[in-house]
Amino acid sequence: MTKSDDLAQIIIGCKNKDSKCFSQIVDMYASRCYGYFYRLTGNNDLSDELLSELFVKLVEKIGSYKGGSFEGWLFKIASNIFYDYLRAKQRREKLLDVQKKQIESQITEPKQSDNEQIDKLQIQLRKLDTDTRELIMLRFYSQLSFKEIAVIRSEPIGTTLAKLHRGLKKLRELMK
Description:
CATH superfamily of the largest domain: RNA polymerase sigma factor, region 2, helix turn helix motif
Shape: globular
Radius of gyration: 18 Å
Largest sheet: none
Oligomer: single chain
């Protein structure tokens, strides 16, 4: 039995409300999805919260999965959850000010670490707009194909490639 056959069986189990199958899905995708959220937010607690919400949505929506790339489907839900979070955040002006001050202090006073290059990358990623940062995270951290990203974002693959190219160019300039 191949990995995709195993995944297909697990998904069938999830659709039949088998808690062991849901546990297997969580085991398979929790670290990648957590990393996706963490790279977008830079906050452990918030990433945990968004990850929990993702798996609650997975339980609710598994019946709507009709085949194709399960990872693409799962990360589409993750992307929607992240954007829902952003919209809620924007409605709370007070929290926006706190977040802005927090980011500015991190940019002006980068923390010391064993791997300063990773710190610098994280700081420069935060300087990118949210859309570009998410695109880079979907491609390089979540390891999704350009086609999967284009489907998630409901845009032509050429648009996705162009946006990613411009985002990487800007990130390279910031890293110099």
